[in-house]
Write a structure and sequence with these properties.
- By secondary structure, the protein is of the alpha/beta class.
- It folds into two domains: about 190 residues, D-Maltodextrin-Binding Protein, domain 2, CATH 3.40.190.10; about 200 residues, D-Maltodextrin-Binding Protein, domain 2.
- Helix content is about 50%, strand content about 15%.
- It has 20 helices and twelve strands.
- Strands 1, 2, 3, 6, 7, 8, 9, 10, 11 and 12 form a ten-stranded mixed sheet that branches. Strands 4-5 form a two-stranded antiparallel sheet.
- Helix 10 crosses helix 11 and helix 19 runs antiparallel to helix 20.
- It is globular and about 65 Å long.
- Belongs to the bacterial solute-binding protein 1 family.
- InterPro entries: SBP.
- One of its GO terms (cellular component) is ATP-binding cassette (ABC) transporter complex, substrate-binding subunit-containing.
- One of its GO terms (biological process) is maltodextrin transmembrane transport.
- It comes from Candidatus Paralactobacillus gallistercoris.
């Protein structure tokens, strides 16, 4: 009888332990679920398409896995023009995301409309600030375009600049060597004998090449300090006339109906192609496997080199809650970190944000395996930011229109540039 009672007590005690374990397990699961469900959501709008979409989503996934407090949710809005339009529309209906991609040229307009959160307090103060080591490590040219009116309104992200792509097979066929200057490149036009092959292809609108050549010749097309348009200045006119003369004599062409010239270059219909280093990913996808090609620093123009910084940064919107802003900064800081900058540059062709990334064994091995990315790094000493101001979006539309009028409508260069100068003066005056 005693043994029977002992057995019953033993079974009851075991049952209690099991029930306690089940309860604790259930409670533990509820805690984990609660942590997941109570993450602060950070809505993020981007404009990364094609080969950049997968790395962009992976960057977000990696951040979400790195901590349990915030969850970034990325939503693609189309191209950069689509993104800018949707941001302005969302501002009117108070439906802005927490963070978004933004070309640095869009920042003045967003600031004028009171949309952006200044980042100075996050960057320089508090436990999550950037250290002096961080700030010294990030390339100054990228930090500079993150600044507007003495405030940081963005952080560097998708930074790129223009390089010269070249087809080694066509160069060998026509007896052309790598040019040291644009003037030398122009002289090689006579060597290209095939009617269906051009010496060089530009994008549908070659505004960044025009600005790069104008800078090399001695001017920004809008003076940074005074916001005075210099479109009809001698250096600017020299740059535009040089490009237009190549188009008129048939040695160069634009990409026509296609916005970008990478397909023409990858299709081996041009010996050279001048465009952003981020296009390397498209050329890799489109070019035949047996096509021998490379990239180089843009040649000199009038004895100097210049290449315009492009791409986009990350901005934070004012209407977010304090908790969302803290999460947005955590994501921004994650993007700026050395490991993520290394991975991002390797997978997208965008520029490494930090000097330490370029000097790392991992990135040097990447350059060894994929040398077409070296030219972008070697171009950094010649990089400059275009001048930005409120009304820049309309200014850029007028710039593109002027180029289209010269190329498609055969408008005289002087007349088109005079018209662009007047439009630029009016835009800047109206937005002061």
């Amino acid at each position: 009888m005693r043994n029977k009672k002992r057995i019953i007590r033993y079974l009851l005690s075991i049952g209690s332990v099991i029930l306690l374990g089940l309860c604790l397990g259930a409670c533990g699961n509820k805690t984990t679920t609660a942590q997941t469900n109570h993450r602060i959501t950070i809505n993020y709008w981007d404009a990364l398409l094609g080969p950049y979409q997968k790395p962009a989503q992976q960057l977000v996934n990696d951040f979400n896995k790195s901590q349990t407090k915030y969850k970034v949710v990325m939503n693609n809005q189309g191209n950069y023009a689509d993104l800018e339009q949707k941001i302005m529309a969302a501002a009117k209906s108070n439906q802005l995301p927490v963070i978004a991609q933004a070309p640095y040229t869009t920042v003045p307009n967003y600031v004028k409309n009171g949309l952006l959160e200044p980042l100075n307090s996050y960057m320089f103060h508090g436990d999550q600030r950037l250290t002096s080591k961080d700030l010294n490590d990030i390339y100054p040219i990228f930090l500079k375009n993150a600044q507007y009116n003495d405030n940081y309104y963005s952080i560097p992200f998708c930074e790129s600049l223009s390089v010269l792509y070249y087809n080694k097979d066509l160069m060998q066929k026509y007896g052309i060597t790598l040019p040291t200057s644009w003037e030398e490149l122009q002289q090689d036009a006579a060597k290209v004998k095939d009617n269906d092959v051009k010496l060089i292809v530009f994008d549908q609108s070659f505004d960044k090449m025009y600005e790069s050549l104008a800078k090399a010749a001695g001017t920004n097309i809008v003076a940074p300090d005074t916001l005075t348009p210099e479109i009809t200045s001698q250096p600017s006119m020299t740059a535009m006339n040089f490009i237009m003369n190549m188009i008129k004599n048939g040695s160069a062409e634009t990409s026509g109906a296609d916005p970008y010239g990478n397909k023409i270059f990858a299709g081996q219909k041009a010996v050279f192609y001048a465009d952003t280093c981020s296009d390397i990913m498209y050329v890799k996808q489109q070019a035949p496997s047996n096509m021998q090609w490379g990239t180089m620093v843009l040649p000199t123009f009038h004895g100097k080199r210049a290449t315009m910084i492009e791409g986009s940064n990350l901005v934070m919107f004012k209407n977010a809650t304090p908790q969302q802003k803290a999460g947005a900064w955590a994501f921004m800081k994650f993007v700026l970190s050395k490991p993520e900058s290394t991975k991002w540059a390797r997978e997208t062709g965008y520029m490494p944000l930090r000097k330490s990334v370029v000097n790392s064994n991992a990135y040097q091995q990447f350059l060894h395996n994929s040398p077409v990315h070296k030219a972008a790094i070697n171009s950094l000493p010649y990089a400059f930011n275009t001048t930005v101001f409120p009304g820049y979006a309309q200014f850029h539309i007028d710039e593109v229109t002027a180029i289209q009028n010269m190329v498609d409508n055969k408008q005289n260069v002087k007349d088109a540039m005079n018209q662009f100068q007047k439009e630029a003066e009016l835009i800047i005056k109206q937005n002061r």
